Amino acid sequence: MSSGWSAFVIALAAFNILGCAWLLWWTSKRRPGDPKPEDTSHFWDGDITEYNKPMPRWWINGFYLAIAFGIGYLFWYGGLGSHPGISGWSSQGEHALDKVAADARLEETFRPYRDQPLPVLAKDPQALALGRSIFANTCATCHGSSAQGAIGYPNLTDDIWHWGGAPDQVLQTVLDGREGVMPPWGQVLTGMGGDNAVDYVVAYVRALGDPARMSNNFMAAQGRQLYDGVCVACHGKDGKGNTEMGAPDLTDDYWLYGSSRDALRKTIIDGRHGSMPAHRGLLGETRSRLVAAWVWSLSQQQQPAATGNGAGEGAP
Q: Which positions, given as ranges, span the membrane (predicted)?
């Protein structure tokens, strides 16, 4: 807090305290010429009279004690701007103490799972329960409560992994994150093959997973030449992708950003940038290991690969 704001807070606190004390003193005293408490001339039902008697002294003194307590509280706990209190207490320090205690309890809970391999954790129901709870608190925002993802957010329940589905690869994804970048190729392809170049590549990519589409397909044939000149470096000659780069397999029935012609055109023209945040600093290694074990266990259930959207673990 700056010195100016600190002075403002101190002045505001002093004004309110002194104002309350003055108001209490001013309204509790009687002055010469004031009517007697019984002389209000307010009557109801003939025998009910309104009086104007001063508050009892014990009640007024109670207010003065409350004001004195408030002044002491401000000095003791540091309520006057940026000036620390006499006791040295601060909300930041209180939070730090609570965090230390909570971290100690968490450490005790997670100690049995430290450095355990993912396949071992995946066989432990208690470890999986902890991993699922961590996932719900941390990962469900992007991947959904059922881990089935959405457009642009991978489905974690299938067996498709853009960065590799081995236990160590899944753990690395959770710990260190991933950055999957698909460069924009619209202008490059147009320069190579004219205005229809992007449509040619879309036709070829959509035909990769279905050889029947290749036969007598002029657009796919034109797209293959363009693909071999631009896309093959990441996705491979056969379109199977590259897990070292996060380049997806183009021959399966899974599309992170959708399989429609418009979706594929946008991907090729504008590119994509998928970011999986690193969770090492947020969760620590043991909790990251638990959530990775739970996620990895989902892919071991041999569920059919999802279509349309969701899969892999964090990049286009």
A: 6-26, 58-77
